[in-house]
Design a protein that fits this description.
Layout (H helix, E strand, L loop, with lengths): L2 E18 L4 E14 L4 E6 L12 H16 L21 H18 L4 H5 L5 E3 L2 E3 L5 H13 L4 E5 L6 H10 L4 E5 L9 H6 L8 E2 L7 H10 L4 E3 L6 H9 L5 E4 L1 H4 L2 H13 L4 E3 L6 H10 L23 E2 L8 E3 L9 E2 L1 H7 E8 L1
Parallel strand pairs: 5-6, 6-7, 7-8, 8-9, 9-10, 10-11
Antiparallel strand pairs: 1-2, 1-15, 2-3, 4-13, 12-14
Helix pairs in contact: 1-2, 4-5, 8-10
The chain binds 2-succinylbenzoate and magnesium ion.
Magnesium ion binds next to loops.
Length: 369
């Protein structure tokens, strides 16, 4: 296959409910949709789901645009390849910039799956026909507001709830949710905000029967994660710490995690995300697929990845409607009692709604070989 044209579309959509993490809040998202065309005219779409600001990862929507335009698209245009696993080799010299790479990598996979008439999940080697979705709930103004949000999503059938935590919003909200729902599959995510001086708050969370504590410490501080894991029985899950398969090897050797959150964006694409899955699976570490409030294209890729055998915990692949009034794909991703069906049609398994994209596009660029 040979990619002869690439378009980047910066598309802006409002979230239906403002989302707040330990570092920032957001209500409007700009993601870059990647449209690759090969010499036969076949098209593959991907999504660069970088947050606008560099608070989750170092990238921003502007750095992703720049990397795409100046380095990544030029690296792949006109190159011959047989399998989507070969595509990342064309930009192997580019360090980091995982979100930007991810959008192009996914578009390559979707193009290949579409051209070969196989569903994306099958192209990846996935075998599950449905995946279980959990919800990730942001920091709310009050505990009552949080309880309302939890209730709303449990009523919609989601079987697992993750709460964002931060110093001053940890033990008390967790105690309140646990008291209201003693049996709920509940976990927390700190997005790396805690330091060693907060260890008493983190240890206090150990009594609530949480499924995991996700990324309590800074991304590079693997030693702090390993130390805390020795002191608590709740499994520690890593998110931001693992950007490469090599990061995962080090974390495993330090016993810094018992569960892995795999994000396609954070790993730089489906090829690397699947490799992380394979390594974790061999090591006996359960994985789940994290989200970045993806629009439908990235969301569909998350569903496909979650069909791999090691994804034994609920993934953040909630229905499009949790996030957006209207999505860039038809039909949108839907969840029935917290279960999402893995599409069985070729490629992404959804149509891309180019009219809706055109109505919400902020900027477009086309590059050709
Ligand atoms: O840590 O998982 C995270 C959103 C933005 C930045 C970081 C994270 C998140 C989420 C969103 O939790 C999960 C979703 O897409 O539903
Ligand atoms: Mg996280």
């Amino acid at each position: 296959m040979k990619i002869v044209a690439a378009k980047l579309h910066r598309v802006r959509l409002p979230l239906v409910h403002e989302f707040r993490t330990s570092s920032h809040g957001k209500s409007l998202l700009d993601h870059i949709l990647v449209e690759l065309t090969d010499e036969s005219g076949a098209v593959g779409w991907g999504e660069i789901a970088s947050p606008s600001d560099p608070y989750y990862a170092p990238e921003t929507v502007e750095t992703c645009w720049l990397l795409g335009e100046r380095y990544l698209v030029p690296a792949i245009l006109g190159k011959e390849w047989e399998r989507p696993e070969e595509v990342p080799q064309f930009w192997a010299k580019v360090r980091g910039n995982q979100f930007a790479k991810s959008g192009l990598d996914v578009a390559g996979w979707v193009l290949w799956a579409t051209s070969n008439d196989v569903p994306l999940a099958a192209a990846l080697g996935g075998s599950r026909s449905e995946v279980v979705a959990g919800v990730s709930l942001g920091i709310e103004p009050t505990i009552d507001d949080l309880l309302t949000e939890v209730e709303r999503h449990l009523a919609a059938g989601y079987p697992r709830v993750k709460l964002k935590i931060a110093p001053g919003w940890d033990v008390e909200p967790v105690r309140a949710v646990r008291a209201a729902y003693p049996e709920l599959d509940l976990h927390v995510d700190a997005n790396g905000i805690y330091t060693a001086e907060h260890s008493s708050q983190l240890k206090a969370l150990d009594e609530f029967g949480l499924t995991m504590i996700e990324q309590p410490f800074a991304p590079r501080d693997l030693l702090a994660h390993a130390r805390l894991q020795q002191q608590i029985s709740t499994p520690i899950c890593l998110d931001e710490s693992v950007e490469t398969v090599d990061d995962l090897k080090i974390a495993l050797s330090l016993d810094a995690l018992r569960i892995l959150n795999i994000k396609i964006s954070r790993m730089g694409g489906l090829t690397a995300a699947r490799a992380a899955h394979d390594l974790a699976h061999q090591a006996g570490i359960p994985v789940w697929c994290g989200g970045m409030h993806e629009f439908g294209i990235g969301r569909a890729a998350n569903v496909a990845l979650s069909s791999l055998p090691g994804f034994t915990l609920p993934s953040d692949v909630s229905a499009s409607a949790k996030y957006y009034a209207q999505d860039v794909i038809t039909p949108p991703v839907v969840a029935t009692q917290g279960v999402v069906q893995v599409p069985t049609t070729a490629g992404l398994g959804h149509d891309v709604d180019t009219d809706f994209i055109r109505q919400n596009v902020v900027a477009t660029i086309e590059l050709t070989s």
